[in-house]
Write a structure and sequence with these properties.
Keywords: Membrane, Transmembrane, Transmembrane helix. It is built from 16 helices and 13 strands.
């Protein structure tokens, strides 16, 4: 393999890594309404990249004909520069993405020099012919196809209609503090609160990046002390490191504990020092895992589970309970699995189902407590508005389904078969106690929320999945 081919393979690898790791997994750009213009640039670049790779795979350009792929490469370069400008204006890139872009730019320069070398060193007759099929051509063909698929996906994402339902608690402007405002649930809440004219502050580990997510409309800070003497009408505490993902080692459990329990305790301690005119509302996130993964009942008055998840949720809620003594009305949201297109568990499951990977876990009979994101927003609105609403509320849909039924419904929603099953034993070997979150679950009930006469916007799983497109 010549120098040009090595550089091209390296460039393709870097581009694929950037797309998968940053655009899809960590940044999830397709789920961000503010990144529609960036997605449009990505779509143009990926489609052009696919065309260019396809030509290089099957056509041998010599002499002046080298200027044809060079012109396509120049257009791709202009699109990339426009994309860089858009990125800097709309979001704060993580360090790994900036480093990767720098390496790609350096390699693109070397690639361009290697491309032009035949024109300057030993000019050849201007000819164009079909290339013989080999491993290099096969590699470029596959990558061209993947680039085209990525481009079409970004094009569809860029064309998705913007959310029309942008109001939340529209009666009067409120001063709102949100922790975890850059996450899946938090970011959508912030957008709706800002759209309703509320004054929103966000406690975030990355305040500059979070501020750019909301075009500077929200005040962002990274220390509780930065709250100062500011008084808030509503505080929504959603902060917490992801529970599913890394194994629950001792160090990981400490991260999960500190990001929830310690932060909540410190926040409540600070709030207790602030003067209050009215009775503000403190909304505390928790999870259905409060009852323990093997609980037989999940009524709000039931005790917490004895497993790590149950004890983590219980300690999280207990830390928030101290806010009552400071004169706040406390609402605890024991969330089921939240379904939405902007993030959370559904996009990766849906992507897997598109490729026929929808899988029943274990025997599939474990409950799957779920709720649509719209109903999370609606429940928060109803509970905040109702002055009699206090204490814990299970936030899950009234339709009870098990994991196998959810998987079949998901596969049906994307018109794919469901045939895979993952046995429980290897999952327990690989994930340890964390596997219980996937293989067992308390039954889903929402009695207190229904007693508040909340009308679910998506009461059935079929309707929720349809709403998620």
């Amino acid at each position: 393999m010549g120098g040009f081919q090595v550089l091209l393979v390296f460039q393709v690898f870097l581009g694929a890594l950037d797309t998968v790791w940053h655009h899809e997994l960590t940044e999830q750009l397709a789920n961000r309404e503010r990144q529609r213009r960036e997605l449009a640039w990505h779509a143009c670049r990926s489609l052009l990249y696919g065309l260019l790779l396809g030509l290089l795979a099957w056509v041998d350009f010599r002499g002046a004909w080298l200027l044809l792929p060079l012109s396509l490469f120049s257009v791709e370069l202009m699109i990339t520069l426009a994309d860089f400008v858009e990125e800097d204006q709309s979001r704060l890139l993580p360090p790994t993405e900036r480093i990767l872009h720098t390496v790609m730019a350096i390699n693109a320069g070397a690639l361009l020099v290697a491309w032009l070398q035949p024109l300057t060193v030993a000019p050849l007759p201007s000819t164009i012919a079909w290339r013989s099929f080999d491993g290099f051509a096969a590699f470029l063909t596959v990558m061209a196809g993947l680039a085209m698929v990525s481009g079409l996906r970004d094009a569809f994402a860029a064309k998705k209609p913007l959310s029309m339902n942008t109001t939340l608690l529209p009666q009067r402007p409120l001063r709102v503090l949100i922790t975890g405002g850059s996450g899946f649930i938090g970011s959508t809440l912030v957008h709706r609160l800002l759209g309703s004219g509320h004054h929103v502050s966000i406690l975030s580990r990355q305040p500059r990046r979070t501020s750019m997510m909301f075009a500077g409309q929200a005040a962002c800070f990274d220390r509780i002390e930065a709250i100062g003497q500011q008084q808030y009408d509503l505080i929504i505490n959603l902060a917490g490191a992801p529970v599913v993902g890394l194994p629950w080692t001792k160090a990981r459990r400490r991260v999960l504990w500190d990001s929830r329990v310690t932060l909540t305790r410190d926040l409540v301690t600070h709030l207790a020092t602030l003067p209050r005119k009215d009775r503000p509302v403190f909304v505390q996130a928790s999870a259905m895992g409060y009852y323990g993964q093997h609980a037989a009942s999940s009524r709000e008055q039931d005790p917490p589970g004895v497993d790590f998840g149950g004890q983590l949720c219980a300690a999280w809620e207990n830390a928030a309970e101290l806010v009552r003594d400071a004169g706040y009305r406390l609402i605890i949201l024991r969330l089921g699995l939240v379904l939405g297109t902007q993030g959370g568990i559904l996009p990766p499951l849906k992507l897997s189902a598109h490729f026929g990977g929808a899988s029943v876990l274990g025997d599939g009979r474990q409950d799957f407590p779920w709720i649509h994101l719209d109903d999370v927003h609606g429940s928060i609105e109803r509970l905040v508005q109702n002055r009699d609403a206090e204490g814990a509320f299970n936030l899950c849909a009234p339709e009870r389904v098990d994991q196998a039924a959810f998987t079949r419904a998901l596969a049906k929603s994307v018109h794919r078969p469901q045939w895979l099953r993952v046995p429980a034993t290897p999952m327990r070997w690989l994930l340890g106690q964390m596997a219980d979150m996937l293989l067992a679950s308390p039954p889903a009930t929402c009695q207190r929320l229904q007693a508040m006469h909340y009308g679910f916007r998506h009461p059935t799983l079929a309707a929720a999945l349809k709403a998620c497109g």
